[in-house]
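(Fold this chain)
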Amino acid sequence: MFCEINGIGHDILKGTNVTSFHLDGNPVKVIDKNSFRGSKVRAFGCDSCQLTSKVAFNGFLKKMDLHSLFLTNNNITAIPQDAFTGLNNLDTLHLRGNPLVCDCDLIWLRSFADHIKYSDKFSWKCALPRKVSGRSLISLKKSEMCDKQSSDGTF
């Protein structure tokens, strides 16, 4: 259901028994880093929410004991290396449809994906740099992602 939700405040589910929370299709611009503190959410989804990297990885994910994460069809370009640190039970990760910048900063995600039981990792496509645009992140070699020509800002 699309409710035009554009922000999530702190402690929204604290004290509830909600285990699955999906915002799919809502134009979410802000998620407080403490939105899910004290919650029992195990599955979080925000498919087609217009999420940016800054909103998606501001720390709110680490406040949950996530098993499943669905962030498809958003505006995520970068994923910090510590984005999933502490999410020891994460076994489902879906990120297809995001315009990833496949540079050396994202190389860690290739090996991380091998430890996820259920993912759409072969659908994680690169938007930049141009030389790998449209290719799957998983198919790239380290040398293609960490090419000195790409790291000097020339995309």
